[in-house]
Amino acid sequence: MGVIVPPIKCQGIKTKLVPLIKECLKTPIKGTWIEPFCGSCVVALNVQPEQALLTDTNEHIISLYRGIQDQTIKPGIVKIFLEEEGKKLSTDQEYYYRVRERFNKSKDPLDFLFLNRSCFNGVMRFNKNGKFNVPFCHKPERFSQAYITKIVNQVRAFSEVVSRSEWIFEIADFRTTLVRSKPDDFVYADPPYAGRHVDYFNTWSANDESALINHLKETPSKFLLSTWHSNKYRSNPLLEANWQGSGFFTKTFEHFYHVGSTEDLRNPMTEALITNYALLEEDKSIEYNQLSFIGGRN
Ligand SMILES: C[S@@+](CC[C@H](N)C(=O)[O-])C[C@H]1O[C@@H](n2cnc3c(N)ncnc32)[C@H](O)[C@@H]1O
User: Fold this and answer.
1) Is the minimum distance from the CB of 39 to ligand 1 under 6 angstroms?
2) With a 6 A CB cut-off, is 192 part of the ligand 1 pocket?
3) How do 222-231 and 186-189 pair as beta strands?
4) Which of 5, 119, 183, 201 has its CA 20 to 30 A from that of 126?
């Protein structure tokens, strides 16, 4: 089965990494799948755990997904909304900015979806006051019938998976989510990469980074952390300092981001997955202090 694509896009979306992440899970999840930085939820959508706690500080993502879950946002509603709003956009490009202004006042999740799927470069960026500030993609015919059908199908697929699962969506800081983890749970953590995706919801300080490391080191659950290893300019200086020692394992691989505006984001990046369980049965994977490049081009 191919990867199920969620209805929203965000920086650092892991669509391309889903097969690798699934391969690294090893065993079925007995308890709750905990994702403290759920973003687009593409990973949960494809792992399809029965129980999940999906949290993020971005209230707009959570509100859209809650709407799909409680069926106030159904595929049919999305179709009509995008057809009507897309028509207005096709005759007046400035209409995008009217929706943006409306969204920044009302926080309507359908407006959020509209903006997310018609903004420049498909990025999700909010200014320091928490207002969405990405310009229009300059394609008046953005919401073609084919594009609307694609989005509606993504909403339907999301809704189908959510309706047969016990998933909880919450606006929360990762600290309050991670203290809830128990031995049978599985934590997948995909934090913002420091200094990369800087915006209102993605501000990430050295304090956040060290708090995350401490929480993960103390969690009774198995965890898998996505982080960056290096790009052509530099290596992640914190990786070795944070994970040196026994009991943590890593897999590295090269990855190419497609969502992003700057050259830096479009260059290949070597990513690392860090776990507190062995990734390969026979050799107990690569313990962190023997880190080596074992992945291929993604
Ligand atoms: C790299 S993205 C996650 C991408 C996600 N795995 C996906 O595939 O779509 C990081 C996410 O962390 C969220 N975030 C940033 N700071 C946070 C915090 N302190 N607590 C919880 N979530 C946070 C952002 O809103 C963003 O959605």
Assistant:
1) yes
2) yes
3) parallel
4) 5
Residues 6+ apart with CB under 8 A from 208: 174, 191
Going from the Cα of 105 to the center of ligand 1, the distance in angstroms, rounded, reads: 23
Distance 169 CA to ligand 1 centre (A): 13
> Per-residue pLDDT tens for 103-159?
999 999 999 999 999 999 888 899 989 999 999 999 989 999 999 999 999 999 999
**How far is residue 96 from each of residues 8, 74, 183, 195, measured CA to CA in Å?**
17, 23, 47, 29
Atom of ligand 1 nearest to the CA of 201: 25
Q: What type of residue sits at position 70?
A: D
Domains of the chain listed by start with CATH number: 15-67+165-290 (3.40.50.150), 71-161 (1.10.1020.10)
**From ligand 1's centre to the CA of 128, what distance in Å?**
17
Distance of CA 209 from the midpoint of ligand 1 (Å)? 13
Of 245, 231, 275, the residue nearest 25 (C-alpha): 275
**Which tens digit of pLDDT belongs to each residue from 253-263?**
877 655 554 54
Q: Whole-prediction pTM value?
A: 0.91
Q: Which amino acid makes up residue 148?
A: I
What is the model's pLDDT at position 197?
A: 55
DSSP per position, 160-217: HHHHTSEEEEEE--HHHHHTT--TT-EEEE-PPPTTTS-SGGG---HHHHHHHHHHHH
